[in-house]
Write a structure and sequence with these properties.
alpha/beta; 18-stranded mixed beta sheet
């Protein structure tokens, strides 16, 4: 037995080292857990919140086991994904303490308690998305924010959308996406947008156009690749020269998750301009009102790069026959206002693979036209068509997947 309990000094040192490393590992995460709880409590006291991601959630979407929480502490392995701050009063150092704990991917900072002092911490962080509203940040503070070298997406709301504040962001080489909400789109503000050389995507939500000059000035933002506009009334009788934007590939008008009830009001001149953007690859329109009305949608044969077209609710246009002149289309989505006659030439679209016909536009007469397009591989239809008509379509297009939607847009059946 004595021989059994003998061990060398080397073995003792190795054992002590292993135990020390394990204790240090556990201790580190227990301290991290305590710091997290402290920061979370301070955030909650100031009207803030955290969104976390954990390695466990990323792997199997299951919460961490209770034994791990007991050993390492709650949220010990969590990574800070998003932080929201509502600070109506200054909270000195709070932003810095949050970022020092674990630099978040996204930060939403609202209220007059957000100042130039906080900009120092944000500008030195690895934050990727920043949302600002009602802060006391000055142009000097924005110049400090521009130092955030991983900042990709900036959202400005209301009073933050001043050209004096936006202009310093021209020095942020990583900034590729800009969202402006509740902004007055003056020519000076658009000039500040045009001055951000790295900008590729611009989203305008519920913005106002004091005059046509600001609307037309969008033609100066030549670096743009994507333009999105939602819930806005653009100036009558005017349009920006979007054909002069050589990199513009995608336009969304009141489309996607943030579609509004009001849509976007545009002039006939703007519709004509859309048909002249030769670099355009995708045009997606949710709700667009053309005022005064336009007799016919313009021909699209010059748009040789256009492969995606969505016209879900276009009001103020009588005839859409010309959409079949976009012969390079691979995907077409149509809805309200599109009559059977408008798609009579659908078989001319020899590259068309995906077709969606929403709402009452999906008639049996329309399906007879669709049956002639043998290149289709996916068709989605609204609630008006009968199952018998769909079955006939399936027989005509045996290689095509056909999906039926109900009145709320939910999938009910696939063939």
């Amino acid at each position: 037995m004595k021989r059994f309990f003998r061990f060398s000094l080397l073995a003792l040192m190795l054992a002590v080292t292993v135990v020390a490393v394990l204790l240090a590992y556990v201790g580190y995460y227990r301290v991290r857990s305590a710091r997290f709880a402290s920061v979370q409590s301070e955030l909650a006291a100031n009207g803030g919140a955290m969104t976390l991601t954990t390695e466990t959630e990323e792997e199997d979407e299951q919460p961490a086991s209770s034994w791990a929480d007991g050993l390492f502490g709650e949220n010990a392995f969590a990574e800070l994904e998003e932080v929201t701050l509502f600070l109506n009063q200054p909270a000195p150092g709070l932003v810095g303490r949050v970022i020092q704990f674990d630099s978040p991917v996204c930060m939403n900072a609202y209220g007059q308690g957000i100042s130039d002092d906080d900009a120092i911490a944000i500008g030195a962080s690895s934050i990727e998305e920043l949302d600002l509203d009602s802060t006391t940040l000055t142009p000097k503070g924005y110049a400090i924010l521009a130092r955030a070298r991983q900042l990709k997406h900036l959202t400005l709301v209301g009073g933050e959308t001043q050209n004096e504040k936006l202009a310093p962001m021209a020095d942020c080489a990583s900034l590729t996406e800009l969202t402006l909400i509740d902004a007055d789109m003056t020519p000076e503000l658009v000039d500040a947008i045009a001055g951000i050389p790295s900008l590729r995507e611009l989203f305008l939500y519920q913005v106002r156009w004091p005059n046509a000059a600001g609307w037309q000035a969008l033609g100066k933002v030549t670096q743009l690749e994507t333009l999105r506009i939602t819930s806005s009334k653009t100036p009558a009788g005017a349009s920006p020269a979007l054909r002069d934007l050589p990199n513009l590939k995608r336009i969304e008008i009141d489309f996607g998750d943030l579609r509004s009830f009001d849509g976007v009001r545009v002039s006939p001149e703007f519709v004509q301009e859309l048909a002249a953007i030769k670099s355009l690859q995708s045009l997606e329109i949710g709700l667009m009102k053309v005022e005064p009305p336009l007799d016919a949608w313009p021909a699209l044969e010059t748009l040789t790069k256009l492969t995606q077209l969505s016209l879900l609710k276009v009001r103020g246009v009588e005839d859409f026959t010309a959409i079949t002149t976009a012969t390079h289309l691979k995907s077409l989505n149509v809805g309200e206002g599109i009559q059977d006659s408008s798609l009579a030439g659908l078989d001319k679209l020899t590259n068309l693979e995906q077709l969606t016909i929403e709402g009452e536009a999906a008639t049996e007469n329309m399906l007879e036209i669709v049956a002639k397009v043998k290149t289709l591989r996916q068709v989605t239809l609204g609630a008006k068509v009968t199952k018998e008509a769909v079955q006939r379509l399936k027989e005509a297009l045996p290689k095509c997947k056909i999906t039926l939607l109900n009145s709320t847009g939910q999938e009910v059946e696939s063939l």
